[in-house]
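User: I'm new to structure prediction. If I give you an amino acid sequence, what do you actually give back? Let's try with this one:
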Amino acid sequence: MAFPSVSFLVPTMTTVTSAAGGRNAQRRSEVLMAWLFSVPALLLLFIFLITPFVMAIVLAFTDQRLVPNPNLPTRFVGLRNFVRLAGDETFHRSVLNNFYFVLVVVPIQTSFALFLAVLVNQKIRAANFFRTIYFSPVVITMVVVSVIWFFLYNPGEGLINKFIEAASFGLIGPQNWLNDPKLAFPAIMFLSIWQGVGFQMVIYLAGLQEIPSSLYEAAEMDGATRLQQFWYVTLPQLRNTTIFVVLATTILAFKLFTQVWVMQGPSGHPLGTTSTTMVYAVNRGFKMGKVGYASAIAVIFFVIVLIVSLGQRIFLKEERAVD
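Assistant: Good question. You get back a string of structure tokens that encode the predicted 3D arrangement of the chain. For your 323 residues, that looks like this:
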């Protein structure tokens, strides 16, 4: 049996080597272009996120003031700021308010977002119009939304009080929504749910449209009702989507700041019942000038968000393992 000459194999090997080298060069060029396009974003990320974060960690162990005093230089105080936080009742109330906000807003907003997503996912006329209406509050900045709702909550001429008074035929008088300790935080929660529910709705809507229609057809052939289809088909298929929505909403809820700052002021009135961790940090850092103490609050807040983020990662891993 005759074997081919080696000379016939050399061009083929050369061609393969050249092709591999060309692919490697192209890959290196793509990686280089990717890094070049990423430089502006990475630079801004370093300047406005990483650098302030590192500075906050360093300043948390000092008595840094907002306005430096030549007679009182900045000193390293170790864990003194954190020890004071352990006995700071206002800080404790602010953290509890954050958890209270999360425990109320997250389940209500998630459930309402799922309801709206199922509603606008139906094959009805003007479905896109309703999707736009429900999503429109998300594109409005929270500052603008807070100012508008501040006037809506006005105890004298606010539209909400006027509507309640008309609907109850004058039996329910005007409520001082933002100054009543029992109503102030629920009023802010209601505003937050209204403003953010459209974002979760869009995520759920994307998840609903990924569910194969064959599952519903099979369930219908088995005699399942609409409610049974929702419970045994829709919800299980939206498991990963629900985990993402819940944990993302939780992280955003912990960052509650703008609504309270605009509608209640720096102190979170009345009686501090609406003060949150970030409001308290900004208040101590910029109003009272205690940057070191405010940095310690920010570090604690970072730890809380980090724990929530790690929880998200663990849950997602478990879901992938199950699937």
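You can read the tokens as a compact description of the fold. Here is one thing that stands out. Residues 6-59 form the longest helix (54 residues).
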